[in-house]
Structures are given as structure tokens and as C-alpha cells.
Amino acid sequence: MNARRINTIAKKEFIQIIRDYRSLALAIFIPVLLLILFGFALSMDVDNVPMIIWNQDNSQVSTDFILNFKNSRYFNIVGYSDNYGQLQNYIDRKQAIMAMVIPKDFSKYIQSANAAPVQLLVDGSDSNTATIAMGYVNSIVAKYNAAFISNTLSRLNIQNVYGIELRPRIWFNENLESRNYIIPGLIAVIMMIIAAQLTSITVAREWERGTMEQLISTPVRRNELIFGKLIPYFMIGFLDLLIAVAMGQFVFNVPLRGSLTLLLVLSSIFLIGALAQGIYFSIFAKNQRLAMQLGILTTFLPTFLLSGFVYPIYNMPKVIQLVTYLVPARYFISILKGIYLKGDGLAILWRQAFLLTLFAAAMVYFAYRQFQKKVT
Q: Most CB within 10 Å of its CB: which of 14, 87, 124, 150?
């Protein structure tokens, strides 16, 4: 390869980018916008679950039981009812996700040390939210039962009664904040989509404008043309990466426990692969619209659905799990989460780093093989 010719192609591409300043602005603005929208809007946490209560007992015991939910950040008591019709109306109108019915003799059951039935009506139209909310209810009820049993044993002067003492300890994401694992995953999704979109039209645009014939007639080789076109977009993509990392650190307060240098190096490898993939589609399609459609189809959907970003891979069917091994974002997201949350180094992440390097090399090779210096 001739460095001078590569530099000339890169300068030509930079001039083209600067002339199309709207596309340049979008290339920088869109990642920021996506990070803000997804970072604040996309959350797996379930807080302030709207609940309506029908307290038929109206005793101090039932009131104390309700306070456990009222004082919890996971629930928001939106109202009290005195009939099933009103409960159904709240749930039908989405004003409440769940309704709790405390029976008339609730305090008698409690004071006689018998099991007190409490009915819980749950809107299952959103199964994920319903399951998480029911887990919160079970947790509060379990704590209430534990406190009640302890008070009862104390009142009866029963000594040396031991039960199971569970002491959970959460690693890597102590507060279980979904933002801490969503933001690293978002960086991978945004980089994959933006990178492929940046380069998916670059060669196709040359064919459509008739300037490719002029490039073919020059001494520029195939690999020099590809690398010359990669360099400007790599710099733009790297700038997007720096912005995303800075926003994760200072806007969303996501902890970065690992090496920033390792993060940038491995991200650069992934970025080269994504850019080369876009160039491959651009060479293959020779049409800007088709190249962009191929870029979206092969980057957005697999990265969003099959990388483990939103849906756990182990929950997918076995056939789909095998397909995920072909999605490079799967390895990059694993790297990002390892560096951000666990502080992993290359000794742990070397397999993912090797596969990303293999992906980048394969995409550059495919783009090189696909491009022919002749008019077809």
C-alpha cells in the first residue's frame, strides 16, 4: 500500500464529508440523541407501581399492613375502593396495575395466629412488569411475616428459635440499577448502527455520481481506496465513541471500573469492523438506498435483538442461540459490561477481543474482495 495515495483518498473523503455538513451533523447528533432517549426512557426497573386497595377490615392491624406498601418506593397507592367494580375500572383504565383486597376478618386471623388470606388482582397484559411487581409484593409480605413471627415468639417468651437468615450480596451492580448495564449496551448498539450507516453509502455514492470511473482510472489500488475511505469515518466514529463514554460517565453516572485505554482500543477494533461492513454493502449494492437498507437490516435488528442487550441469550431457543454467535455486538457488549461494571482486563476478555479482531479482519477482506477496479 502507498501511504500517499491512501492520504489522498482520505483527504478527498474529508472534503466530501465537510461539503455535506448536514450528514456530518447528523452523524454526531444522532448518537447523542439516541443515548439520551434510550438512556432515560429505556429502563428495566419497576418503581411506583400503581396500586388500589380495598380494605374491608378497617382495623389498626390492616392499616399497619398497608403501610408496608405505602412506605415502599416500589408502590404508589392511587386510591382506596369499597367494591370490585371500582377495582376493575381502575385496572381496565390502566390507572392501576394491581389491586389488593384485604378481607373483613383480617385482624382476627392475624391475632389468632392463623393464615390471613389477602387477594391480589394483577394486570397481566404486561407480563414482565406484572412478574416483577408480584415479586415486590412477595418480598414485602415475607418481611411482614418475619416481623410478626418474631414479635409473637417474643411475646410468648420463647427463646433460642432460629430460622433461615438470608444475607444477599449483589456484585458489580449493587443497587441493581438497569441504567448501569443499559448504557454500555447502548454504546455498542449506537456504534454498530452509526458506523454501518456512515460508510454504507460512500462507494455507492461514487457509482451513482459517476466519479468511480475516474477513481478506477487512477493508480489507486483496491486496498488503498478502502482504507482511504475508512480513515475519515473512523475518526468520526471515534469521536462519537468519546462522546458516548463521556455521557455515560458524567450524565448517567455509570461506573467505569476497568481500563479506559483497553475500552478505547477494543472499541476501535469493533468500529473498524462495523465501518468495513458498511463499505462492503456499499460496494455490493452500488446503490445508496439499497446499501442503507442492507446496513439497517444487518446491524440494527441483530444488534438490538440478538446481542443480549435487551433479551438474555440463555432464554432464547437453542437455534437462535447458535445464530447469536454470528452477531459481533454480542462480544462487544460483553466487553463493555466487563470493563464498565466488573473492571475486567484482557486476561478475561481475550476471547471476545480475538473474535472482534477476526470480525474486523473478515469485513475488511470481504470489502477488498468485493471491490473490482473495472466498470461492470
A: 87
